[in-house]
Amino acid sequence: MAKGPTVYHVAERAGVSIATVSFTFRQPEKVKASTRELVLAAADELGYVPSASARGLARGRTGALGLFAYDYLLDPSGGPGVQGGLPHDVDAPGDREEGNLRLFPLYVDEVQRGVELECWRRGQALLVGGGNPANNEAVLSDIAGRVDGLAVFPRSVPVEALARIARRIPVVEVSESLRNRGMDHVTVDNASGARAITEHLIKGHGLTELMFIGAMPSTDNDERLEAFRGALAAAGVKLRHEPRYPAGGELTVAETVRTICHQGSLPQAFVCATDQDALVVMDVLAAAGVAVPKQVAVTGFDGIAAGRVIRPSLTTVRQPMERMGRTMVELLLDRLDHPEKPPVDLKLPVRLVLRESCGCQPS
Question: What average pLDDT is seen over the chain?
Answer without folding.
Answer: 84
